[in-house]
User: Fold Rhodanese domain-containing protein from Virgibacillus oceani.
Amino acid sequence: MIKLEETRIERMNEMPQINEILPNELQQLVKEDKNVVIVDVREDDEVAQGMIKDAKHIPLHKIPHSINNLDKDKHYVLVCRSGGRSMKAATFMDEHGFKVSNMTGGMLNWDDEIVL
Assistant:
């Protein structure tokens, strides 16, 4: 049993540490840093209910095919409904050399402007 726990801890240490950003921090960051790109990874029907203004919509399943068209000099902040799918996308992009952050709590915690 101890061996299993040690293995889990070793794996946790190997996992990439993705920066988490709160919605209010993202609102400020977008105003200050022109290299920030918000990427909404939700599905089309979810985005149809509203998304963050100026966000780029790339559904999670399209991220692997889309990263070749993205600029590695930008800082990508990934967003979904609650933060789980965007963390998967952020981890994938981080592993491919992108500067990324995940918005904590996703759109459920976003209280600023959205566009339809």
Notes: The mean pLDDT is 91. Residues 19-115 form a domain with the Oxidized Rhodanese; domain 1 fold (CATH 3.40.250.10). The radius of gyration is 15 Å.
